[in-house]
C-alpha cells in the first residue's frame, strides 16, 4: 500500500512539474522523501527541480545520493549532463552523456544528447561519429541528419556535409535551416551558381522564409547581380520589417548602387528601430552629405558621436560636412579628433589634408597626406588625395606619379581615371588626357563628375556638340547643383510664356554666353535673365530682357534654362558660334567720362589685369605677379592703366615704385558697367584669363590674353585667335608655370604696336 501511495504521489509531482508548477512538485517530493529517503525516482525528480531552480549545490547533492544508490541510473546521468552543460563544464557533460549511451546503446535520443554535447565542446569529428552511429540505427531522423551535416561542415568535411544537407531537404523540403546552410556552404566553396540554385529551390518550398531571401541576396551580390540582391533584401523587409540587420545590408547596397535617396529612407527605418546604433547614424550622415542635405548630415554625425564619443569615422564625416559648410577650423578639429581616436586610420589624415589645403596650410596639408599614404599604401584614394595636393603645389610630375599609383591600385574606379585625365590636361598632354577621360567614361558612363570633366576635354578639342551635351552633367554634381524648378526649355517656341535664363558659373562664363540671347528672343515670349549682381548694371541695357540679380525675388516664370546650356540647345559647332561683336556695349555717357579722364595721354592707352581671384582653383597657373609683367610693359609711347581689382599685398610696392607709369583706374570701377566704359576708352587690354578678357571680347575691343599651358576649354588648342571673340589675340605658355616665353613676346608686340603707326593689335 505504501509503495502504491508513493508512486501515486510521484506521478502527481511529475504532473505538477510538467504543468509548470515546480513549487507544488517540490513539496510533494519532499513529503515522499520524508517517508522514504532513498526513493530513487523522488530523489531524481527533486534533483531536477533543484537544478532547474538554480539551487546547484542542493541538486548536485541529490544526484550524488542517486548515484550512491544506483551508479548506472541513466535518467540521473542525463540530468547531470544537462546541468554540467548549463554550467559550461562541457567535458563533464560529454562524459555523463557518453556513460548514459553506453548503458543504453540503442537509445537514439541519448545519442542525440551526446552529439549536441560534443558539438558544444567543439569536438566535431566525435559528434559526427555519434550522429552517424545513431542514423545507422534509425535513418529516418531528419533533424539528426541536419545536425550531422552541421558537424561535418564544422570539421571541414564539406563534400560530406553537402550530401547530408541534400538528404535533409530531399526528405523534408520545408526544412528552412537546411536550405539556408546548404546555400551558404556552396557559396563559401565559391560555387555561387549552385548556391543560387539551392536558394531558389528552398524559396520554392518556403517562399516567405526571410533567411532564405537573405542567403539568396548574399549569393546574388557575390556574383555581381546587385539589383537582384536588392530585390531579395526588400522582400525580407516586407516579411520581417523589424529586421534591422537586413535593413542595414539593404541600405549599404542601395548606397553603393547610387540610389542614395532610397538608402536614406532605409537607414532612417534602421535608426527608428535602434536609435543607439552609431554606425547607422554615420551611414545616414554620408548619404545626406552626398545629397547636399548638410544640416541633416551634421545632425546624424553628431548623434553618432553622442552614442560613441570615440567613433573616428563619425568625426571624419562630420569634418567633411563642416568643410562643405565652410567651417574650416571646425572641420580641421574634427579630423584631428578622428586621428586621436584612431591614429592608424589613413582616412583621418587624408581628410585633414583636404581641410588644411582649403585653409591654405599647404605644407601641413602635404604632411598629413603623406601620413595617410604611409598608413595605407595600398589605398588608392590616399594616393589620389596626395596627387591633388601636389598638383596644387605645382609639382605636376609628383602629382602624376601619385595619380598613376592610385589608378594602378583601383583600375576600375572611374573617378581616379578622370582625376588622372585632369592632371594630364594640366601637364599639356591633351591627347593622353582625352584617351584617359574616354576610359573613365567607359568605366562610369552614368557618373556625373566623370561626364562633366570629359566635356571640358571635348570642348577643348573643338567637339562642341558632344562637349556641350556632356557639360549638362554638371547639374548632377553636388558642387554645381542649382535649385531651379520648372520645366526645362529645350529650344521650342515659347510665345505667350516667360523663360528664366539663369547664370550658375563664373562672371566670365556669363559674359561669354550672353551672346545667345537674341537667338532665344527670336523664339518669342518674355525673357528673365538672372545673373551675378556685379553684372546687372551692364546687362540691363540689353533689349527685350528683364535682368534680375541673383538672390533677388524672381517674377513668375513658365520655363527655365541654364545660360551655359544655350550652346547645347542651339547645337553649337565651331562653325556656328554666334560671334558677331559687339554683343555688349558700354553706356555712352560713362564712356565719354572715361575718355575725358584719359584724354590727355597721347600714347597708346593699355589696360592691364595680371591676376585673377585667389580662390580660383587654377589661380596658381593663370595669375602673374605685378613685378613679372608691369615693368616689361613700361615703354615709350605706352601709358599703362591698372584695371586690377584688389591687388595682392606683394603687388603694392611694385605699383608704388612704377608711379605714374601705371595709372590705377580700379578705384573707379564699382561694377562691370564702369569697367566696360573704361575698356571702351582704352586702345588695348592685356589680361590673364579673367572675366575682363571676356568683357573686352564681348565688346569687340582689342585684347591680348595671356594663357597658361593647361588651357581652359574655351580657348581651344594651338590657336592664337578665338572663334568666340574676333578681337582677341592669345599668347600661350609653352611649358606649365613658365611665362618666360610669353612675356617677351607680349613686350615685343607691344613695342611694335607703339612704334608702328596704324599697326593692328
Plain-language structure description:
With 761 residues, the protein is α/β, with parallel strands linked by helices. Among the domains are: 173-258, Tetratricopeptide repeat domain (Serine Threonine Protein Phosphatase 5, Tetratricopeptide repeat); 266-372, Alpha Horseshoe (Serine Threonine Protein Phosphatase 5, Tetratricopeptide repeat); 439-480, no CATH class; 498-569; 588-755, Glycogen Phosphorylase B (Rossmann fold, 3-Layer(aba) Sandwich). 60% of the residues lie in helices and 6% in strands. The chain is built from 39 helices and 10 strands. The strands form 2 sheets. Strands 7-6-5-8-9-10 form a 6-stranded parallel sheet, with helices on both faces. A 4-stranded parallel sheet has the order 3-2-1-4, with no helix packed on it. Helix 2 runs antiparallel to helix 3 (40-52).
Q: What tags apply to this protein structure?
A:
four-stranded parallel sheet, 761 residues, alpha/beta, single chain, Serine Threonine Protein Phosphatase 5, Tetratricopeptide repeat, elongated, 39 helices
Give the strand content.
Answer: 5-15%
CA-based gyration radius: 40 Å
Q: Kindly identify the CATH topology of the domain at 588-755.
A: Rossmann fold
Determine the N-to-C terminus distance.
134 Å
The overall pLDDT average reads 90
Biggest sheet architecture:
6 strands, parallel
At CATH level 2, the architecture of the domain at 588-755 is 3-Layer(aba) Sandwich
Number of strands: 10
Give the CATH superfamily of the domain at 588-755.
Answer: Glycogen Phosphorylase B
Amino acid at each position: 500500500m505504501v509503495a502504491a501511495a508513493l508512486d501515486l504521489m510521484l506521478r502527481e509531482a511529475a504532473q505538477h512539474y510538467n504543468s509548470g508548477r515546480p513549487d507544488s512538485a517540490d513539496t510533494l517530493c519532499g513529503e515522499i522523501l520524508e517517508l522514504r529517503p532513498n526513493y530513487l525516482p523522488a530523489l531524481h525528480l527533486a534533483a531536477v527541480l533543484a537544478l532547474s531552480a538554480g539551487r546547484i549545490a542542493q541538486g548536485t547533492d541529490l544526484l550524488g545520493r542517486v548515484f550512491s544508490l544506483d551508479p548506472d541510473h541513466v535518467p540521473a546521468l542525463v540530468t547531470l549532463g544537462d546541468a554540467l552543460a548549463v554550467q559550461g563544464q562541457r567535458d563533464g557533460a560529454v562524459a555523463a552523456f557518453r556513460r548514459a549511451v553506453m548503458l543504453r546503446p540503442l537509445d537514439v535520443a541519448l545519442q542525440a544528447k551526446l552529439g549536441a554535447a560534443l558539438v558544444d565542446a567543439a569536438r566535431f569529428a566525435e559528434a559526427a561519429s555519434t550522429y552517424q552511429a545513431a542514423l545507422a540505427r534509425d535513418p529516418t531522423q531528419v533533424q539528426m541528419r541536419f545536425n550531422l551535416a552541421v558537424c561535418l561542415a564544422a570539421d571541414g568535411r564539406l563534400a560530406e556535409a553537402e550530401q547530408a544537407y541534400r538528404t535533409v531537404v530531399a526528405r523534408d523540403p520545408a526544412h528552412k535551416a537546411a536550405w539556408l546552410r546548404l546555400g551558404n556552404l556552396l557559396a563559401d566553396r565559391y560555387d555561387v551558381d549552385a548556391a543560387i540554385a539551392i536558394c531558389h529551390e528552398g524559396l520554392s518550398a518556403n517562399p516567405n522564409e526571410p533567411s532564405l531571401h537573405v542567403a539568396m541576396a548574399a549569393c546574388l551580390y557575390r556574383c555581381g547581380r546587385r539589383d537582384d540582391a536588392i530585390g531579395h533584401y526588400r522582400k525580407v523587409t516586407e516579411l520581417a520589417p523589424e529586421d534591422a540587420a537586413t535593413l542595414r545590408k539593404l541600405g549599404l547596397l542601395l548606397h553603393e548602387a547610387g540610389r542614395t535617396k532610397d538608402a536614406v529612407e532605409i537607414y532612417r527605418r534602421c535608426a527608428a528601430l535602434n536609435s543607439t546604433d552609431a554606425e547607422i547614424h554615420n551611414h545616414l550622415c554620408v548619404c545626406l552629405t552626398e545629397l547636399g542635405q548638410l544640416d541633416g548630415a551634421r545632425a546624424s554625425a553628431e548623434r553618432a558621436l553622442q552614442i560613441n564619443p570615440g567613433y573616428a569615422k563619425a568625426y571624419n564625416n562630420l569634418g567633411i560636412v563642416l568643410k562643405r559648410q565652410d567651417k574650416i577650423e571646425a572641420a580641421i578639429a574634427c579630423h584631428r579628433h578622428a586621428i586621436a581616436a584612431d591614429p592608424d586610420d589613413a582616412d583621418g589624415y587624408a581628410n585633414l589634408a583636404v581641410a588644411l589645403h582649403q585653409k591654405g596650410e599647404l605644407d601641413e596639408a602635404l604632411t598629413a597626406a603623406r601620413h595617410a599614404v604611409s598608413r595605407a599604401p595600398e589605398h588608392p584614394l590616399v594616393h589620389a588625395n596626395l596627387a591633388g595636393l601636389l598638383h596644387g603645389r605645382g609639382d605636376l610630375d609628383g602629382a602624376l606619379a601619385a595619380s598613376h599609383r592610385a589608378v594602378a591600385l583601383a583600375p576600375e574606379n572611374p573617378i581616379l581615371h578622370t582625376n588622372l585625365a585632369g592632371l594630364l590636361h594640366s601637364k599639356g598632354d591633351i591627347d593622353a588626357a582625352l584617351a584617359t577621360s574616354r576610359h573613365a567614361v567607359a568605366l562610369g558612363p552614368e557618373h556625373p563628375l566623370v561626364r562633366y570633366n570629359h566635356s571640358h576635354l571635348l570642348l577643348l578639342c573643338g567637339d562642341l556638340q558632344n562637349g556641350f551635351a556632356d557639360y549638362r552633367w554638371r547639374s548632377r554634381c553636388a558642387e554645381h547643383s542649382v535649385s531651379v524648378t520648372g520645366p526645362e526649355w529645350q529650344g521650342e517656341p515659347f510665345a505667350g510664356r516667360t523663360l528664366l535664363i539663369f547664370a550658375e558659373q563664373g562672371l566670365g562664363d556669363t559674359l561669354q554666353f550672353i551672346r545667345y540671347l537674341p537667338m532665344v528672343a527670336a523664339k518669342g515670349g518674355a525673357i528673365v535673365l538672372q545673373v551675378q549682381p556685379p553684372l546687372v548694371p551692364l546687362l540691363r541695357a540689353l533689349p527685350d530682357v528683364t535682368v534680375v540679380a541673383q538672390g533677388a525675388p524672381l517674377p513668375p516664370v513658365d520655363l527655365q534654362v541654364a545660360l551655359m546650356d544655350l550652346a547645347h540647345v542651339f547645337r553649337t559647332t565651331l562653325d556656328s558660334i554666334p560671334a558677331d561683336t559687339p554683343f555688349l556695349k558700354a553706356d555712352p555717357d560713362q564712356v565719354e567720362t572715361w575718355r575725358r579722364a584719359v584724354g590727355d595721354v597721347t600714347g597708346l592707352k593699355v589696360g592691364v589685369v595680371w591676376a585673377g581671384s585667389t580662390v580660383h582653383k587654377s589661380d596658381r597657373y593663370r595669375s602673374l605677379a605685378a613685378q613679372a609683367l608691369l615693368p616689361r610693359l613700361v615703354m615709350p609711347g605706352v601709358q599703362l592703366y591698372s584695371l586690377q581689382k584688389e591687388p595682392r599685398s606683394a603687388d603694392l610696392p611694385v605699383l608704388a615704385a612704377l608711379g605714374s607709369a601705371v595709372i590705377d583706374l580700379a578705384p573707379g570701377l564699382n561694377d562691370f558697367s564702369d569697367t566696360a566704359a573704361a575698356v571702351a576708352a582704352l586702345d588695348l587690354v592685356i589680361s590673364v584669363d579673367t572675366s575682363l578678357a571676356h568683357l573686352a571680347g564681348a565688346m569687340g575691343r582689342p585684347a591680348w590674353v595671356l594663357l597658361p599651358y593647361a588651357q581652359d576649354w574655351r580657348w581651344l588648342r594651338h590657336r592664337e585667335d578665338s572663334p568666340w571673340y574676333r578681337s582677341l589675340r592669345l599668347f600661350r605658355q609653352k611649358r606649365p608655370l613658365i611665362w618666360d616665353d610669353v612675356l617677351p613676346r607680349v613686350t615685343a608686340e607691344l613695342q611694335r604696336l607703339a612704334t608702328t603707326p596704324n599697326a593692328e593689335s
